[in-house]
Design goal:
heterodimer, A: alpha+beta, 7-stranded antiparallel beta sheet, globular, B: 5 helices
């Protein structure tokens, strides 16, 4: 991803964090500590561009996103809602914003529904060191975002 | 006065607002919960709120319950919101049920296409509670204040 695209991704991440999750996004100045479990959400899109977006974060961040979105504290969480579901929706909104930013509001894209799974510490460490992932922080939690796309 | 089908006549000849039953269709339980919470806190007289994770589940609920309004996402597994609207249009009993799209969709072309299929309104995620409430009140003309 070139520098210009990285800035676009960071801006969209900031906007979605503020408007959906009521969180503050920033560059990760230094490595942020976090504890497992970690989750990885991804979705793909196909239209004038085809590509894939991946977001990786500690599950604790997913829980905070969910609490902020629902406006509840931990004791009121509906147990039927898994925290990682909130990361999927965060990704879904991110994808919608990204597509209008890169392609405008005319074209139609087909999107895969977001999927999410838990990853082990080995994969977490690999992603942390992968330069294709943009490293950011959301309210002092790390989040890693990869966006790959090309014209069809 | 809003949608006359949502009002009934009382013994004195006055019109009384009936509560409305709403179906929320979204594969994200977080979004389902946000929409339900927004509806419960709004001034709208809510009856039952039903939940579906995709269009197929929604059709089942629509065929077995009286539902006044459908709030649906587009991008869902098994059956999308677009396919749901198509199926509802093919069903004489369901084709007049108002549908509101709540989605991350940013394509004006797609939104126009959905409106031409019968969707009454579109709300882009993330939405504010006020925007959802205002949209429903405008669409159905229902409010506890009336």
């Amino acid at each position: 991803m070139n520098e210009s695209n990285r800035e676009v991704v960071k801006q969209i991440l900031t906007d979605v964090a503020q408007n959906f999750a009521f969180m503050f996004a920033d560059d990760m100045e230094e490595s942020l500590e976090s504890s497992p479990p970690y989750v990885k959400a991804e979705m793909s899109f196909l239209g004038p561009y085809k590509g894939k977006i991946i977001m990786v974060a500690p599950e604790l961040l997913c829980g905070d996103i969910m609490n902020n979105v629902l406006g509840i504290d931990e004791s009121e969480i509906d147990l039927e809602i898994e925290p990682k579901d909130a990361l999927c929706e965060f990704l879904n909104i991110f994808c919608g914003n990204l597509l209008t930013t890169i392609a405008g509001t005319e074209p139609i894209f087909e999107l895969s529904p977001p999927s999410v799974k838990e990853i082990d510490e080995k994969e977490w460490e690999e992603i942390k060191n992968n330069e294709n992932f943009i490293q950011s922080s959301l309210d002092d939690y790390p989040i890693y975002v990869s966006v790959e796309y090309e014209r069809t | 006065m809003g949608n006359k089908f949502l009002y009934e006549t009382n013994k004195l000849g006055g019109e009384v607002l009936m509560s409305i039953n709403i179906l929320i269709v979204d594969d994200s339980k977080t979004v389902q919960a946000v929409i339900e919470k927004t509806l419960r806190l709004s001034e709208i007289e809510i009856g039952n709120i039903y939940h579906a994770g995709n269009g197929k589940e929604a059709l089942e609920l629509l065929r077995n319950n009286w539902i006044d309004l459908v709030l649906t996402d587009i991008n869902m597994p098994i059956m999308t919101g677009v396919e749901l609207i198509d199926e509802m249009n093919r069903d004489d009993l369901l084709k007049t049920t108002p549908i509101v799209i709540i989605s991350t969709e940013g394509s004006e072309t797609r939104i126009e296409e959905l409106k031409s299929k019968g969707a009454k309104a579109y709300l882009r995620k993330p939405f504010t509670p006020e925007s959802l409430k205002d949209l429903i009140v405008e669409l159905l003309g229902v409010s506890k204040d009336e």
